[in-house]
Fold this sequence. Notes:
The structure is a single chain. Helices cover 14% and strands 37% of the residues. By secondary structure, the protein is mostly beta strands. Strands 1, 2, 3, 4, 5, 6, 7, 8, 9, 10, 11, 12 and 13 form a 13-stranded antiparallel β-sheet that branches. It is globular.
Amino acid sequence: MTELKVLHESTVQPDEIDSLGHMNVRYYMTRVDQANRAMLAEMGVQEGSGRAIRRLDTYTRFHREQFAGATLHTLGGLIAVEGADDLREVNGYFEIRNPDNNQVAASFILRSCVIDVASQQVLEISANRANVGNFSATVPEYGMPRSLSLNEPGQVPLEELEAVIGEDSTPGMMSGRLENVVHSEDCDKDGRLREEVDLMFVLHRPAPGDESKTGGPPIMRDSEGRRYSWAMIETRSVVWHRPMAGETVLSIGADIANGEKWRQSRRWMFAKESGLLLGISDSVGLCIDLDARKSIPMPADVIEAIERNSLPQFA
């Protein structure tokens, strides 16, 4: 295994801190996306001239929370190349590390391709094969999925989900309905959502007047008065299509599994007007006492609501 290369350096900014007091999931994604593009560029994979890099599949495992002022290095390597002569996808392994203590903050497994922006077709990647070998890497045990699967998730039609998922959501996580309009400033010159703009950002974009609010899950209190919420420990996002400016992204979500302290949620994201499935986002959240900074059992009423509304048949 070739040593992972440092591809991006940064400092956690105060405006990257969410409601739980640590760097929000969104900003981990920003860093690894920049690192992935930097690695592909060193391999000779270039964007421009009608081509763009697309992350088809992003698995993340969170290890240690990071706070404002922390220095972060994003390292990466190549774990698989699909197709010997007709290279169309690359798989990368990445880590975000805090160099002050050499601890892993988060690890990632990414599957990327290059698309023709106009036709949205996957193109053959013209990579410098001599440089590809310089990025060879192996996923360590701590970077492998713990709860989520890397198998292709099942696609479910919008009407089938709407028949079983109502307007009400289970407290505090990813269930229920969300929708928001794609803004033109988030799109490329052809009016399609830019590749580096996550669908979840579109859904969770603050409403006018709410821009100053921190992101992240809501904070609640249990029967003992403890402040609690859910911290992401694993996520996975699979993307098939990108919406156009003016289209409404509709997200329908439900819990599909749970334990005493954790819950797994899945969101299906559609272009509302056409019913086209854009992507699927999975997350595993751990219930934490926000003051003690440790995991606790979920309140009984939350577990009851999860189990009442759970849809394990869609896992």
